[in-house]
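Two proteins were folded this term; both appear here.
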Amino acid sequence: MKTSELKDTEYNSYYKTYILALEEVELNEELQNGMDDFVTLLHKIPESRFSYAYEEGKWTIAEVLLHIIDTERVFQYRALCFSRNDKTNLPGFEQNDYALESNAKNRSKASLINEYMAVRKSTIALYNSFSKEILKRTGNANDAVTSVAGQGFILAGHQAHHKKIIEERYL
């Protein structure tokens, strides 16, 4: 499925920024290419820089990376539920609370990259299993209707958004 095939009704408008962070891409290809590009960037960052925050009160690079991982896990679970026609209204999650409890300061660069890759590879495997029909299925998350495809494009765009921030503000 391509970005242009995703309708505004398939995701909460809050996530529009992430959708707009993507060009015209095919979802499964973008999940893979996004991982490859992001890992290349992460390997270029010195380990000492992972504890850097560009401003008081902002997350460190390690915390940003764990935020991406946590978000991927939550959205992957949502996509799985929606793909199986689970009609439960899934809860939101408070990203700042998750970041506080992430234990990022005690993690190595290698462990963070390995965890990110494991989670993204799991997302790729899940999305590779979906048919076009399944991608169109919807469910409720945080009181908003979202499609399986919407969850995937949000994940891809969310990472692209944070990659740009890392490049512009952290490096």
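Next, the second protein.
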Amino acid sequence: MSKDISRRKFLKLFGAGAAATATALVGCKDNKTTQMEDEYKHQVEPPVGKMTYRVNPATKDKVSLLGYGMMRLPTLQKQDEDDEDVIDQDQVNRLVDYAIEHGVNYFDTSPVYCQGHSEESTGKALHRHKRSEYFVATKLSNFNDALWTKEESIKMYRASMKNLQVDYIDYYLLHSVGQGGMERFSARYLDNGMLDFLVEERKAGRIKNLGFSYHGDVEVFDYLLSKHDQYHWDFVQIELNYLDWDYANEINDRNTDARYLYGELQKRGIPSVIMEPLLGGRLANLPQYLAKDVKQYDPEKSIASWAFRYAGTPEGVLTVLSGMTYMEHLKDNLLTYCPLQPVSKKEEEFLYGIAKQLVGVESIPCNDCKYCMPCPYGIDIPAIFVHYNKCKNEGTLPRDKESKDYRKFRRQYLIGLDRVVSPERQPDHCIQCGQCEIHCPQNIKIPRELDKLSGMIEELRRESDVL
């Protein structure tokens, strides 16, 4: 791959964000809106002044337990399907203002989120507030090999400060270490001297806390912790939820159970920042039979709140990130953390029971993060996986040809797929190039899954022609 690539081109290629699955979002809009209205129709206003805070032992920062993930920001309605998503800055400002008013002070972004526009949008919203009112976290997202040189990586680091309108960054991360193993990690951060550079930036005060976010090969995670005496990690961002606690490796053998990750950080007194408390929404949209069990246990709590309470309960957790696109989501999370009611041992066992049942659901572990996008051949990978998982979780996959509902489910699956993914962006167009796979935080073997789905869809279409 050529190393002659501009930052703008990189963001276009690797920071597609929400635009990559715009068709899917539009196609599912009515259903999502209905679900949200049902879940939050009796929602009350969260209290002011009741936020739960945790203290960073290294810097004594008093950090809100709810952190705002600026990855899925609201966008303006498109005039045309091919238009680029445009962030709704007014709505972002309203959400940020409301969050700060209710005690949220940790905002997490990246140079590649929202087509490369998240940092700028976040900076605009936060700059309207006193610098002392918020902590901002961003990342060195030098995923592409064209950005592995020290010069290009430093450009990205300095551009983050400019876009965020700050002269120091509170929490700075090596982004998604573990992807591609030690060889890739070394090329991104060690061989080019970038890690040493960032350590010096922390000494100079331009970085207040230095850490990393982890996905993938546990060898990299273990290596970095073995160097804690040298680098003095101020925090580490890990994926933690009640499904990943014991079953991350069982769901995907290239992931690591959160029990191990959290335990290793605790041994060293390193605070944990939590990502994916909902697994990209999967723990808020449980299969219907499991959702019923959760609601029967406590009808007053939203399904999502259980996952957030679980993620926030461990004392070593500094903050729990949530990508909140809608005000209803923000309010629900504020109600969970203002203040936090820790998960009891009995409730913990209940959630582990839910997790054990979820392991048996043959879904694709896609979190809809869109790191795999854009596909060079136009395939809408996240929307394809989201549609499959939705039907699987609802029990409407057309599997059993002897079932009386088979024809109905087959028709629903094909019509629903065509609604959320245009024909030219469906899995039969995959050429198995593998460019998507290296960017997937969940280590999904994307070309293999697309090939399997392509075969299933082709068979369903042939049957619909003859039946």
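The two ends are 48 Å apart (CA to CA). The CA atoms of residues 293 and 354 lie 9 Å apart. These notes refer to the second protein only.
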